[in-house]
């Protein structure tokens, strides 16, 4: 069973060596490595060259260069388009793999069969919390998978997951290019469309939190604009799926998501007052659209909706007074 490890490369000259070395040390042999140079302006590819030579002694290696910088989503899509593996694995070039990562995945595939995707534990270095899986588990229905997702038992990052390539293509799971927080919408669609999955209790990823330089580290207004778009896309997708409209837990999930985004908008210094007001009005509109979902009587949901309404109204009044 062939696994395609897809590695976008952009401004990681200090980390790419460790990343590729961890791939070279994999104990599973049926791997192809696909590096996508997203026009990195530093010495990332020069630093990578000797490691690529070592990788070629063990695995087939493809190096693809974009004609211009296109972003993380485009780099991942390019990797998928050039892959031949039965399963896909996305590895950020400033992170690393435990040496038995791919072997752990394959052992579960041999035990449980060719599921749509597998997800394993991640060792996190830095100020980020990632829930730990303590037991191996086969999920055989979409309801089980969605329940795990909305309960925040399954992390939203694209990494740490082994995804069946034929499933990825069939469900059109391409990353949206030019969008920050692309992992959020990708993982959401992965959960919504999949019917079988395996939780792997072994560590399959080493995630190092960075605050500057790499593809995923930029912060600013676009973060909030894009994240609101992702929330909108998620709600629109669920509104097209009649099955989920009957689930009160889906309603509560989105109320919590909108409430959380409301607090982020209020607290941030990246947005001007009028920008906050516009976003909070959009959040309130999205909240009103949730009426198509079945809801349950919940004081917690009611309080969150009240805060969303008050926040939108307050900023609207402030803007009116100032104008």
From TrEMBL:
Domain Glycosyltransferase 2-like: 4-114
Key words of the record: Glycosyltransferase, Transferase
InterPro entries, A to Z: Glyco_trans_2-like (IPR001173), Nucleotide-diphossugar_trans (IPR029044)
Pfam families: Glycos_transf_2
Molecular function GO labels: hexosyltransferase activity
Transmembrane segments: none
Coiled-coil intervals: none
Gene3D superfamilies reported in the protein's UniProt record: Spore Coat Polysaccharide Biosynthesis Protein SpsA, Chain A
Keyword Transferase recorded: yes
Highest rank taxon of the organism: Bacteria
PANTHER family in UniProt: GLYCOSYLTRANSFERASE, GLYCOSYLTRANSFERASE EPSH-RELATED
Protein name (database record): Glycosyltransferase involved in cell wall bisynthesis
